[in-house]
Specification:
The complex is a heterodimer of chains A (303) and B (258).
Chain A: E1 6-8, E2 11-13, E3 17-19, E4 41-47, E5 60-63, E6 66-69, H1 77-89, E7 95-100, H2 105-116, E8 123-127, H3 138-141, H4 144-157, E9 161-165, H5 173-182, E10 187-190, E11 194-197, E12 199-200, E13 205-206, E14 212-216, H6 221-234, E15 239-241, H7 248-256, E16 261-264, H8 267-270, H9 274-288
Parallel strand pairs in A: 3-4, 3-16, 4-7, 7-8, 8-9, 9-10, 10-15, 15-16
Antiparallel strand pairs in A: 1-2, 5-6, 6-14, 11-14, 12-13
Helix pairs in contact in A: 2-4, 4-5, 5-6, 7-9
Chain B: E1 4-15, E2 20-26, E3 39-42, E4 54-57, E5 60-62, E6 67-73, H1 77-83, E7 90-97, E8 111-116, H2 121-132, E9 137-143, H3 152-156, E10 159-165, E11 172-173, H4 180-184, E12 189-193, H5 196-208, E13 212-216, E14 232-235, E15 238-241, E16 248-250
Parallel strand pairs in B: 8-9, 8-12, 9-10, 10-11, 12-13
Antiparallel strand pairs in B: 1-2, 1-7, 2-6, 3-4, 3-7, 5-6, 13-16, 14-15
The chains are: A alpha/beta (303), B alpha/beta (258).
Chain lengths: 303, 258
Amino acid sequence: MANLNINIGKLQLKNPVMTASGTFGYGTEYSDFIDISRIGGIIVKGTTLRSRQGNAYPRMAETPSGMLNAVGLQNKGVDYFINHIYPTVKVIDTNVIVNLSGSTLEDYIEAAEMLNDLDKLPGIELNISCPNVKEGGMAFGISCLSAAEVVREVRRVYKNDLMVKLSPNVTDISEIARAVEAEGADSVSLINTLLGMAIDSEKRKPILSTITGGLSGPAVKPIALRMVWEVAKAVKIPVVGMGGIMNAADAIEFMLAGASGVQIGTANFIDPTVTIKVIDGIDEYLNRHGYSSVIDIIGALEV
Amino acid sequence: MKKFMLDLIVTKNETLNDQYSLLILKSPEKLPEMFPGQFAEVRVDNSPTTFLRRPISINYIDYETNELWLLIQIVGEGTLKMCQVKVGETLNLLFPLGNSFSLPNQKNAKLLLIGGGVGIAPLLFLGAYLKDKDFECNFLLGGRSKDNLLQLREFEQFGNVFTTTEDGSHGERGFVTQHSLLKDSNFDYIYTCGPTPMMKAVASYAAKTNTFCEVSLENTMACGFGACLCCVTDTTEGHVCVCTEGPVFNITKLKWQI
């Protein structure tokens, strides 16, 4: 058995496999199917300072090899997380990380301060890339200036691991990655969903209530791989790769492209046991290729 | 209630007509206890255009033979592929998912189960369950024509069956809510599943007559177990997931304009 341990920023993970925010609830939704403590890290549902009802139904459209979603960060707010969710998830023997989003800079700072007080929370994933909220979210992540500002301000108040989730809906994702690195991000995760659209031609109407939504699933994997490859060359901090990972081979491709860890998202909906299969599959790959540690395959792409 | 992911073996695939098929699936392991209204998320293999599982109501369950029935309406490529599965092949199911219909409080309650189209699927299971608990059921089933009335013989085993068709080819002509049964009798409990306009009409009747009424909703889902938050419906408690808080809702909880 190969060594799957990996440090990403300030996080110590038992393996490089994490779950992508918004696809794994608070983890407990999956505990009938798998031992969730085997996963390297669980990024819980996008959380905002105050509770949000999210967008109107319909929020989802199936697309070729993927899906569009427009959930719109439905959550009960950071207070609810601290008082009702945190007590149950802090006992899970893995890294439980909060994905934090906001509409204003002040919202991000206030929520990050509250989360900084949780001693069993190893880190947050700063979401500056949600395409499904009218204000904030992705607006912060599509310019270097605003991305730098929100990371700088949150870094001031948040002492544990700060992973910053980047939007692919930009001209040059490497520039944004460098900007957040310069402000003290411990790692970057990418990609969030790609802005997309689906239409019902019979009704001549958009399928989603919000008209546009975020595309995920295998359809986005080649784009995600390319972006991870570019960002890994552009920054010194670790990169966490995601976008359409359905199996161990997909995860390994992201690591070869330069990712120190991966997140699995949409695949959880189709196979709630996929995370465990990916962990076991990476181990099998390392053994088969004679690697003693998962670290050996990070950026090991031969070009 | 614990959820499972299992490969079930197809023991029967019966084409009911060009729109509907009945799949009977056998579990190699003992089937977990399930309740009427619950559903399964069925994985569709070998269909490149089908990415997500399909939520399908449990139509009937036979614990003695360890068999589960799924009534499938072909509405797109996913359900078409599902109906092309052959006896001996397997289907991968996540189940049992969602909540279930409430049992009546008193044994002599007058019950009406109203179904339309593929919405009759959970009502067969509900009828069988209620009969087993010594309740007397009345089924009111509607369809466009007699070809859309399914499983009538099965329903007759569990109670009195009334029908409507829009073209008058079976039972009374019209919609279920126009059936004379609703004018002549009072019911204590109404359970319904079918097209949304039909359920809203039933809910409107129930609200006017002050009758307990539960409806089973069918929203599009990505996961089926409360992780994706895609299948929400608007309720008096805000947006809730149809897959975990439903699919069965009391009409007083829904924000329907009825």
